[in-house]
Design goal:
About 70% of the residues lie in helices and about 0% in strands. The chain is built from nine helices and no strands.
């Protein structure tokens, strides 16, 4: 068991020295972000958006996860967040594979997790000045890609579970249409059926735009950092 733990730490933690470093409680930290936004110079719609995004974090489990695992150190909290993101990626795969999309409760959970991811993406776009610094650029890009795939799978579950498209879907065809929609290709072989299906596709396209903006932000910030180092 001890050897297994050493291997686990070597693979997932490496030589980081902050593994056991105590960190500020996530709820306290989020309240400090809210106070910072409340006292900053933003105004109008931007201010409302920033305040809303800070408050919305309290209704999702990510803060609780960060709070619990933060007691063991900064690195363990980051690993717990990554495992939670991995769960959010694998859960819709399990739902599609086992046919759980027929359950309204499961659909509700998928929509709840999808909303959390959407708000997190907006958080990264509109709260870059108060958001905690990322561990590394490559880690951030990897997590964004994980969120992207998660969104594709979540919408696939919604499409097949609520029967929103023009054809009777299989799990694979639902993922196929969702990926096509998320890349804005639009082959036209499958299309939305009725107002509910059209609204779902519209939301997915808006999420796609959010990802594009986020990628541009990350790439531009990386280029600016490289220019400053030169």
């Amino acid at each position: 068991m001890a050897k297994g733990m050493r291997i686990f730490k070597k693979i997932f933690i490496g030589s980081q020295h902050d593994a056991a470093q105590k960190v500020e409680g996530s709820y306290v930290q989020q309240l400090s972000y809210l106070r910072q936004v409340w006292n900053d110079d933003s105004y109008g719609l931007e201010r409302l958006m920033r305040l809303f995004l800070c408050l919305a974090q309290f209704i999702f489990p990510i803060l609780l996860i960060r709070e619990i695992f933060g007691r063991f150190g900064a690195t363990y909290r980051k690993l717990a967040v990554e495992l939670y993101n991995l769960f959010k990626l694998l859960f819709p795969i399990l739902v599609l594979w086992q046919g759980y999309y027929r359950s309204p409760i499961v659909i509700g959970i998928i929509i709840y997790l999808l909303l959390e991811t959407m708000l997190h993406i907006l958080h990264l776009i509109f709260l870059t000045d108060v958001h905690s610094a990322s561990v590394s650029y490559h880690r951030s890009i990897l997590l964004i890609f994980v969120h992207y795939v998660e969104v594709v799978l979540d919408f696939a579950v919604i499409y097949i579970g609520l029967d929103l498209l023009s054809e009777t879907l299989t799990p694979l065809s639902a993922v196929y249409f969702s990926l096509v929609a998320n890349t804005t290709v639009g082959f036209g072989d499958i299309h939305a059926r009725g107002p509910a299906g059209q609204i779902a596709v519209i939301f997915q396209l808006l999420v796609c735009v959010m990802f594009i903006i986020l990628f541009i932000n990350y790439f531009s910030s990386s280029i600016n950092d490289d220019e400053e180092e030169e």
